[in-house]
């Protein structure tokens, strides 16, 4: 009968490809859901809660409703011509090198897909990829999905100068430890400067150290620079590709989402030598093929404006970090005031803070597999309505418990949102200590 037939027809063989083994959990899926369910104030995931600049939304409206109805159709696979042209012009200026829009630039579906293309294009079964901790969490599963082996090296916190707040600059690589991770099997290193989650902006000396090792061991550098414009206190973002011997072995990754405060548009790019980008194109043409034409067109118009205003006070790339620096300072001050010691970020729109003083209110679970900060962040969103991200999510499994008394805040938020977060913490602090 029908029932026994359909029982027989049921699949019994394993369906999951082996490469998905152990990478099914995703911190964003989990914490975004928690924030949506419980939070009144969300400083968790990294996106602004204020509008993007008018010039960009106007460009999008023109792209969407203007005369050129062809913007609703497919465009060139590796990037809409106006966008790759302006990106090539812009990066030629930044890198002091003549770039060809067709071969040195490729547009991707956010920086996320750019990363995916890199790992798929460069990493073979058994290749090692060095990842500096703490790291944007997707690097690890993406390396594994390509058959590679992630090799981790942590930034180690140094005690701050007397009486000072810790800075993201106090988190440093140990040169000997870094050197010890390079081997015959090393295919690539992932660099993320400015770094999510710490906000560390790598110094020239630190970049030189990495560059020298890459050259010595003939290793590629996947340079995630999505926060390149978000640097504070007059710091300079240095592109590792501009150091001697590095252009030829580096892929620069960028994001319009982070650059123009439009994370939902999912437009990203890669910049690099053709000998590397040609392989990214192979992955791209066999996976997503291209990303939304109208979004690419609007981003192209945004870059055109920024090219014309380059270095001028009206430039968004100057104004936006200025605004963010004020928000950073405000959040640093209000976290410090309640005793949630902030690590002052030199860049990005993230700030990591020490939760040790608030631990007593959040039950400890002895022998739990889950790092303390993860339980803390879940408790806080459920009981206080404030969403953040535990720092341990940015470490590999083996190191998670060593860095489990910090949480990450995103400060690309309206003043009212930051104030509401600060009010929650102040009230909590008062409940603990009495008025
Ligand atoms: N790299 C880093 C370091 C990030 O923080 C993010 C986004 N949080 C991405 C890449 C992905 O960027 P996109 O939204 O453009 O895919």
TrEMBL record:
<keyword id="KW-0456">Lyase</keyword>
<dbReference type="InterPro" id="IPR004839">
    <property type="entry name" value="Aminotransferase_I/II_large"/>
</dbReference>
<dbReference type="GO" id="GO:0016212">
    <property type="term" value="F:kynurenine-oxoglutarate transaminase activity"/>
</dbReference>
<feature type="domain" description="Aminotransferase class I/classII large">
    <location>
        <begin position="41"/>
        <end position="421"/>
    </location>
</feature>
<dbReference type="InterPro" id="IPR051326">
    <property type="entry name" value="Kynurenine-oxoglutarate_AT"/>
</dbReference>
<dbReference type="InterPro" id="IPR015421">
    <property type="entry name" value="PyrdxlP-dep_Trfase_major"/>
</dbReference>
<dbReference type="GO" id="GO:0005829">
    <property type="term" value="C:cytosol"/>
</dbReference>
<keyword id="KW-0032">Aminotransferase</keyword>
<keyword id="KW-0663">Pyridoxal phosphate</keyword>
<dbReference type="GO" id="GO:0005739">
    <property type="term" value="C:mitochondrion"/>
</dbReference>
<dbReference type="InterPro" id="IPR015422">
    <property type="entry name" value="PyrdxlP-dep_Trfase_small"/>
</dbReference>
<comment type="subunit">
    <text>Homodimer.</text>
</comment>
<dbReference type="GO" id="GO:0047316">
    <property type="term" value="F:glutamine-phenylpyruvate transaminase activity"/>
</dbReference>
<comment type="similarity">
    <text>Belongs to the class-I pyridoxal-phosphate-dependent aminotransferase family.</text>
</comment>
<keyword id="KW-0808">Transferase</keyword>
<dbReference type="GO" id="GO:0047804">
    <property type="term" value="F:cysteine-S-conjugate beta-lyase activity"/>
</dbReference>
<dbReference type="GO" id="GO:0030170">
    <property type="term" value="F:pyridoxal phosphate binding"/>
</dbReference>
<keyword id="KW-0963">Cytoplasm</keyword>
<dbReference type="Pfam" id="PF00155">
    <property type="entry name" value="Aminotran_1_2"/>
</dbReference>
<dbReference type="GO" id="GO:0070189">
    <property type="term" value="P:kynurenine metabolic process"/>
</dbReference>
<comment type="pathway">
    <text>Amino-acid degradation; L-kynurenine degradation; kynurenate from L-kynurenine: step 1/2.</text>
</comment>
<protein>
    <recommendedName>
        <fullName>Kynurenine--oxoglutarate transaminase 1</fullName>
        <ecNumber>2.6.1.64</ecNumber>
        <ecNumber>2.6.1.7</ecNumber>
        <ecNumber>4.4.1.13</ecNumber>
    </recommendedName>
</protein>
<dbReference type="InterPro" id="IPR015424">
    <property type="entry name" value="PyrdxlP-dep_Trfase"/>
</dbReference>
